[in-house]
Amino acid sequence: MTSATALFEQAAGVVIGTAVHKAAYSGVLKSLLDLLPQYALTGKTVLPPATGGFVAHVPAIDYALRPVLSSMGAAHIVQGWFTLDKDFSAGEDGRPVFAPAAAEALAQVTDRFSAALPTCRFAETASPLAPAGTGRA
Description:
Radius of gyration: 15 Å
Shape: globular
Order of helices and strands: HEEEHEEHEEEEH
Strand content: 15-25%
Helix content: 25-40%
Structural class: alpha/beta
Strand order of the largest sheet: 3-2-5-7
Number of helices: 4
């Protein structure tokens, strides 16, 4: 756990994603958050993406996950993103393949997340999540 804590300390931004089941974030995520120091997210920008089988699970981001992230000291929690599990799969190379509308929405969310970071150290490269032919970086 020491190395995970060190990674959190070094990060300017953190993506904390989860599957949602029965309107709650996953037990694996809960275990990770429980093992981190109480204020592990102090000063961090956080993006909380989630996926689930039903649109009814969308509120889990704001009503279950956001309060925990806030209590851990997150300086800025960007708008979360939820997609149905039917809107993505693994490609032959193991990379995620998103339905075009889901890929566009994810690109917009990650753009907002990148813009919210104190300094963006990312190179201008094509996003592996962008639909083919969009030219999104």
